[in-house]
Amino acid sequence: MPAEWEPHAATWLAWPHNRTDWPGKFTPIPWVYAEIIRNLAQHETVHLIVKDAAEEKLTRRVLRKAEALRESVVFHRWATNRVWTRDYGPIFVKNASGTAVVDFAFNAWAKYSDWKLDNRVPKRAAKLLGLPCLAARIGNVDFVLEGGSIDVNGRGTLLTTEECLLSDVQQRNPSADRGQIEQALCEHLGLTKIIWLERGIVGDDTHGHIDDIARFVAPDVVLAAVEPNQQDLNHEPLAHNLKLLRQARSESGRQLAVAELPMPRPVVFSGQRLPASYANFYIANKIVLAPVFNDPSDREALNVLAHAFPDRQVVPIYCGDLVWGLGTIHCMTQQQPAPDDKKPG
Question: Does the predicted model carry a pTM greater than 0.90?
Fold first, then answer.
């Protein structure tokens, strides 16, 4: 599985339509999407999933007003349950023969009942692109995995958490133990090293996704979320994860270089603490889209990202509304790597 910073052919997104994901706060969400698409479409193709012709017409109108409607935005009329394509969308792998899609099963984080439309997307994407679609299995059963639960360095090392993949809460693969899950990850994603952290952040509906706490930004470099306030519930688990990362080595045997990424102050809406994290950034061709929250730590987080990506423009996207859906920029995007013989477009 290539690293996210490697050249993209495209980014996959699904237009927001499930109002229950943002109860009482849906109105600004399409405009957040439009701003994200406006930035992405300047540097790569955007495969945009809409549920039907009527939604495509509405989406085009919103994108046109936001100056985000470009030839690089390609529409696909596919019904979906939700918009979090990071978790149910196609996960791409490459070898000497070319690119393929790994079709992991999706069951809505082992929490919700409406997921069957989302679970079809990898096969549909593979068929559209003319790529092999490889069914992910653990033994003789489907391997349930969300893209937000893993992060790779493109050289064979993967980051994940025990809370998400091994806990008996929201248990994705109840018949599999740690060894079987590791073996299946290595087999399907071309891995030789798995680094296990422990817990995710407060408010994370997915029960421990890695993309809110630690991200590779180079083969041996990780950005790790930290919370210095000892009274905050995120302090202890993030401090422990930081310790594990500083002890970890990549597949090359090198000790990881770990840079600290701040957390915003708690984001609370309707009495619920939300999973706001600067680690939920998305690396695209020439740019990095960074979630911000009108918080004093926004500037520090943007500086950390700018240092990590000196050859990319870091673009802040206000996500104070988007996070009410319990995810932000990385959760809603899925990268499609460029073929080795082509430049990113």
Answer: yes
